[in-house]
Amino acid sequence: MKLTYLTIALMCLMIRGESKMSDFKTGIISTMVLHRVNKPGPKIPEKYYNKITIDTSLFDFPKQINPKCIEIKSYIRMTFSERLRTSLIITVIIMIPVYLYRHGTESDRDFMVGCLVGSLIK
């Protein structure tokens, strides 16, 4: 990991600051800094399902010798409106870099490409 940061730092030093690559450099550096700041913390278990308890003594067939209670995971399905809202939010998030790349200035494009390369390197 340290070797990667050293390599990127050396590459950025070799490229002149006033050249066309300065926006590209800025994109790579800002993405790497954001990645270092946003380190993942301890994972919190998320609940994607409800649990349903089934009592086997209530079954007629097969005959239960040792009845017991069993917990079964029941997944929560999203409603149509939730799926529609989620799709809209994801589309807007994806369209921001596409719009900047298509209609932005040359420096915006270089910065976006630098961010993409920096996120791949991280």
Task: Write a short abstract of this structure.
By secondary structure, this protein is mainly alpha-helical. It is built from four helices and two strands; from the N terminus they run H-H-E-E-H-H. It has a domain at 2-39 and 77-121.
Describe this structure in words.
This protein is mainly alpha-helical. It has a domain at 2-39 and 77-121. The chain is 57% helix and 11% strand. A two-stranded antiparallel ribbon has the order 1-2. Helix 2 packs across helix 4 and helix 3 (80-103) packs across helix 4. The radius of gyration is 26 Å and the shape is elongated. The N and C termini lie close together (8 Å). 7% of the residues are buried.
Summarize the topology.
Elements: H1 2-14, H2 22-37, E1 49-55, E2 69-75, H3 80-103, H4 106-121
Antiparallel strand pairs: 1-2
Helix pairs in contact: 2-4, 3-4
